[in-house]
Amino acid sequence: MKRFLLSILLLAAASPLAAQLYHPGEQLFYRVSYKAKMFPNTEVGSVEVCTYEEQVNGEKLYRVEGIGRTLPTYRWFYNLEDIYRVWIDPETKRPVRFVSDLHEGEYTFESYYTYVWPDSTIHTRWRSRQRPFQEKQMTLTAESMDPISLFFTLRSAEAEDFTVGEPGTLQMVLQDTIKLIRYRYLGRENKKIRNMGRFQTLKFECQLGTTEGYSFTDGTIFTLWVSDDRNKIPLYIESPVKIGSIQAYISGYKGLKYPLDSRIK
C-alpha cells in the first residue's frame, strides 16, 4: 500500500477552485480500497474530515481535522493512523497553524507549521522516528497551503469558471519545500459511487510534483471527481500505485451547508 494513504485523499481534494467553504459541523466520511490484477477491489481503510469552531487564546478559529485509519481486519498487516489538524482564520479563510501526527507501521512522523501572513513566511518543524526536529522558514505566497487547507480550496467556484483541458497549478507546503500540484479540468461526468448512488460531478486530472518541486515526470498522479453543486465535495479519487490502484470514495456525510443537489435520484 502507498505511504500517506490519507494524504492521497487530501491532496486529491486540492483541485483548482479558488475559494474556501469552511462550515462548522460538516463531517465527510470516506472508504479507501485497493485493487490489482489478481486482487479484488477490497476496502482497506477509512477517512474522516470534520470541521469545528473553537476559541484559541480568546480568538475564534475553525479547526479542520482529517483522520485516516486502516480497517481493523487489516491492521495486523499494515496498521495506519494518520491525523492532520489545521486552524483557520474565519475572516481571511487562511490557515494559521497546521499539525500532523502520522503512524504507518513502524514509521512515525510529526510536523508543525506556523503561518505568519503579515510577513509572508511560514515556519515548519518536523521529524520522523523520534529523531531530532528539523526546522525551516520559507516564503509564502497566497497560494501556499498545507494539505488540509488545500482540501478546502475548491469549495465555492463554479464549473463555468473553467475551460475543459485548461491546465493550472497550486502550491502545497511539505516540511522543507513547497511542492506544486498541476491540474487539468476534464469536464462534467455522471459518476457512480459504491453504496451511495450516482452523482453529477466535475472531473479533474491532477499530478503532484516530485521532491524537486517543479518536475512532474514521476510525481503522483490522481483523478478526482467533485460534486457538481455548491458544496463541491470530493466524491471519488483514484491514484495508481506500482501494482494496482487506490480509490477513496464518499461513504457518508453530515452537516453540509447546502443540499447535495448533485445526487441523482
Automatic annotation (TrEMBL):
A Pfam family that the UniProt record links to this protein? DUF3108
Supply the source organism for this entry: Candidatus Alistipes intestinigallinarum
Lineage of producing organism: Bacteria, Pseudomonadati, Bacteroidota, Bacteroidia, Bacteroidales
Protein name per UniProt:
DUF3108 domain-containing protein
Q: Domain of life here?
A: Bacteria
InterPro entries for this protein: DUF3108 (IPR021457)
List the keywords (alphabetical). Answer: Signal
Endpoints of the signal sequence: 1-19
